[in-house]
Amino acid sequence: MHTGNAGAKRVLNPEIDAPAGPYGPLAPERRIAALDAARGFALLGILLMNIEFFTRPLVGFVLGFDTTLHGADRDAGWLVMAFVQGKFWTLFSLLFGAGFALMLERAQARGRSFFPLYVRRLTVLLLIGLAHTLLIWAGDILVIYAMAGFVLLVLFRSTPVARLWKWGLALYLAPLLLMWLLAGGIEAARMAAPEEFAEIQADAATQETELRERYVRDARTYQTGSFAQVTAQRARDSAMQAGWLPMILPSVLGVFLIGAWMLRTGRLREPERHRGFHRRCLLLGLPLGALLAVLAMRYLVGVPPLMPGVEQALGMSLMGVASLLLCLAYLSALILLVLGPLPALAHWLAPVGRMALSNYLLQSLCFTLLFYGYGLGLWGQVSRAWQIPLALGFFLAQVLLSRWWMTRYRFGPAEWLWRTLTYGRRPAMRRLVTAQAPCPSGEGLG
Description:
mainly alpha; 16 helices; disordered N terminus
């Protein structure tokens, strides 16, 4: 159709006029809005979980539920541990796996090489994660994502679709099986070798005492230490977390594969055609997952954290299954709301998800500056109960900021840096620019 002077030079929108290369920026109508919204929603859960450990030493992860809490603080901590912790990193990981599958399909459809690009992409993510964990907050998940992503790329990029969920479930449950084997060995020692069992108990008690002493020292460092002192503490915390990788990495990789399966089978790519699947996930996963989470809390609160006996194995197993069920239920609930009565949710949450890496880093930066001694020094001064509305208020600010930003720019600041370092050239930031070379992009974090 003729729309004006044929000789006039049209202003190009790089989101719409990008060529058919596999890594051109996606036009808004080609994006999967539900995925962006889900990624934004996941960031809310990530913050509700992480805010406790912005003002509590990370060794508290090992010590488990904070039994010193009382009243409203205890209720808030209990609710977050039961219904948030473990559910939203799972959702974030599932979306990461879906993003991997989407990028792989785009590359294969155009006959382009995917392996070297994704290696560069993961390498940059690893570097960003290392900077985050050493300079901002040691509870980083990006390093683990990058490491699991390399395994995903090498071992599973050609896995048939029908096998993805099977591998995913097996890998997700593998650490729980290992825990049961350990618990079985301890139970056998209790029954057959009482002296050996007593030594195991004594060692666990000694380790717990040492960890609680470390907890106090670490809290003092974060509360009063200089930036250099806190950076050294972050390095120690990162080394401690490296010891958890054999338990964490298989679970993360497993959820990646489940997310890839959901994308490749259309359950995430075309959710409107799979409403039945999402209804079943919601109607079955929500009540069953909630029931298992409540049962798990009976075994996880007050149980000696370093004595992996039957009670702890049972509690962790129940919570592991509950986390996956609730993750799927939360995702399906959001998708059904976006497709049905509340389509406006996508308009508000999708911008947060499109700049998920920037928002994730911003959460860490702002809250460590709020709580740490080299910042405002409010460590330990915001109660567990008040952390919840604080997190909700901050996330609301992120929703508004992200909406404002994404109406003007194509990427979040961290996403722009990620793409620049991955592709070796700077993509245009503003939404409308004069004609220029197209800039490649990926699918965002997750």
